[in-house]
Amino acid sequence: MDLEAIAAGGEKPIGTIVGTNNLKFRPEQNGLAITVELLSSHTPGAPVVNGDGRFLGFISEYDLLKALHSGKDLSRITAGDLMARDRVAISVETTVSEAVFLMEESRFLNLPLEKNGIVVGCVTRHDLLWAWLGMGLGLGLEG
User: Fold this and answer.
1) CATH 3.30.420.10 is held by the domain 3-132
2) pLDDT tens digits along 80-121
3) Domain boundaries, the chain
4) Phi, psi angles (nearest 5°) of residue 20
């Protein structure tokens, strides 16, 4: 792999990579079920979407730990109660480089990805690292 291919990876739009986190939660979902889902999928968090698939917020393992630390019973609270509302979603047109900057600046582990206003999944740091290096992006590794 040459260095030009590596440098070009940062300018690829996010829509050209395949994210590894496809979890989404609904606001009425039970906190304990969400916890089990995140743990069993080894996923640090996932977006909360409405019935139309539009982004409402984000639930991370930190949100769940914070709820437990404050004495809340996860089986009695919902995604709507737990989610952080100050998170952002990025569009499929966002470049890998822009996503990396946002992730680092905001200390996010993954970013919800929207296409036409609908959440289609998330991209993780792992996804962005692969994409930046050009793995699976026109180098004959797509399988």
Assistant:
1) no
2) 999 999 888 999 999 989 999 999 998 888 899 999 999 998
3) 3-132
4) -100, -5
